[in-house]
Amino acid sequence: MPRPLRTAIVGAGPAGIYAADALRKSAAASDPGVSIDLFERMPAPFGLIRYGVAPDHPRIKGIVSALHQVLDKPQIRLFGNVDYPGDISLDELHEFYDAV
Ligand SMILES: Cc1cc2nc3c(=O)[nH]c(=O)nc-3n(C[C@H](O)[C@H](O)[C@H](O)COP(=O)(O)OP(=O)(O)OC[C@H]3O[C@@H](n4cnc5c(N)ncnc54)[C@H](O)[C@@H]3O)c2cc1C
To answer: Which end of the chain lies in a sparser environment, N or C, as judged by fewer CB atoms within 10 Å?
Structure first.
């Protein structure tokens, strides 16, 4: 039985999340599509948007809601507190994913 293309992305900042969304959209018309796992070393996503941008930049902080919608998609999973390559090696990623 065909299975989705398994993809791993390291880092759940804006770049990683937008990459996941672009991949999801580009695979939307294909069957069985794609599954995407994001590995993030911090306990929570959004990278410097969360940890770097000051609260007095509400327009930039607002990007979080768009990123949040991407993470809500069923094809996308987030694994926090996972450091690459400390917790997961490139060999392991290649073993379990079609693309990294
Ligand atoms: C103080 C400050 C103010 C800013 N203000 C603005 C602003 O006003 N307007 C604006 O447009 N931009 C601003 N920026 C820039 C904006 O934050 C960045 O452009 C954006 O966050 C970059 O996204 P990114 O996904 O490339 O990287 P990051 O946001 O750095 O995300 C990378 C993610 O990957 C994770 N990661 C990295 N390496 C690993 C690893 N080996 N294993 C697992 N996880 C990993 C990190 O923990 C992080 O969550 C500001 C940045 C800072 C620091």
So the answer is: N
Percent of the chain having pLDDT more than 70? Answer: 100
User: Is the model's pLDDT at 15 over the cut of 80?
Assistant: yes
Q: pLDDT of 59-89, one tens digit each? A: 888 899 999 999 999 999 999 999 999 999 9
Q: Which residues contact ligand 1 via a Cβ below 6 A?
A: 10-16, 39-42, 47-49, 52-53, 57, 60, 83-84
CA separation for the pair 8, 19 (Å, rounded): 11
Tokens representing 47 are 């990278």
Nearest to 14 by CA among 55, 59, 66: 66
Architecture of the CATH domain 5-96: 3-Layer(aba) Sandwich (3.40)
CA of 56 to the centre of ligand 1 (A): 17
